[in-house]
Specification:
By secondary structure, this protein is mainly alpha-helical. The chain contains 17 helices and two strands.
Amino acid sequence: MHASQGRSAGLGLALASAFAFGGSGVAAKPLIEAGLDPLHVVWLRVAGAALVMLPVAWRHRDLLRRKPALLLGFGLLAVAGVQAFYFASISRIPVGVALLIEYLAPALVLGWVRFVQRRPVTRAAALGVVLAVGGLACVVQVWSGLTFDLVGLLLALAAACCQVGYFVLSDQGADEDGQADPLGVIAYGLLVGALVLTVVARPWGMDWALLGGSADMDGGAVPAWLLLGWIVLIATVLAYVTGVISVRRLSPQVAGVVACLEAVIATVLAWVLLGEHLDAPQIIGGAVVLIGAFIAQSSTPKAVAAGPVTGSVAGSVTGPVAGPVAEEAPAGTDPAVASAAAEGEAGGRDQGRDPGRDTELSAGRTAP
């Protein structure tokens, strides 16, 4: 019962994270069209969120001593890496192509779980990834304007790898005695990301006066500070907090597939708020993404694979993956007996779980 409730809560948080991340482009595009450089918008986003989370970073300052590699990796990969590589890639290849390549991350997460950590994955999760990526190709209309630029494609692939780091690192230490508080990890990740992006974006050359004006959103004037506030508070702080906590309640591979909805949400919001209309292939693709995400998140294995995980990652791609993985019964075992045994074993583990884990994660949710 508790496991089911925790999974439902994790799914809700993953959807909230996808919605928050998906709204970033809709708010950022008017600012960019008003004259702000894309990298400056990224820097404002991350630096502003880091300032908001500064009190949280001070509260969890012990993480600097206990988990320095985790904090550094999350900041470099999950925050700065994804943003910088994505914006660099769209300067060379179409946005739709870059977005599709970046959202190959769920497939890469499954590859990490299967071949590096040597954990089997469910067929439903793999099918969900295939459907989600295929549907996403329709949503972003990958066939239009495709030009082969090797550097651009490699930059987009680098963004996808960094996003794998976000999902896997978010799960780092979730089952350890001295687990890292997710809010503390996010706070220090944003601080590290802000420092890195300061060097890359060089904000001292930005036209700050633009933030005091207004930006055009489908014919309507919107204060630039309001758009920036949405990007910082909702599309960054809320998005990262709900995203990291959802990974710990679900698993990197399942949360990664649900995150594919970000592209669908971004497209729908652009349709409603920016007047960028969808056509039939995009609508069909969005439905396929939804179906793929549902199949992946609803796949519940019979038992969790026993034994230690043989792989762990440093930086932004490390840690044990606590999620839905399947364990095959020995050959010749009656399916009904194997199923009953698996359920009994899983129930025994659930009774032995530390009930404080979910409480701690819930208590940590002050705001994203």
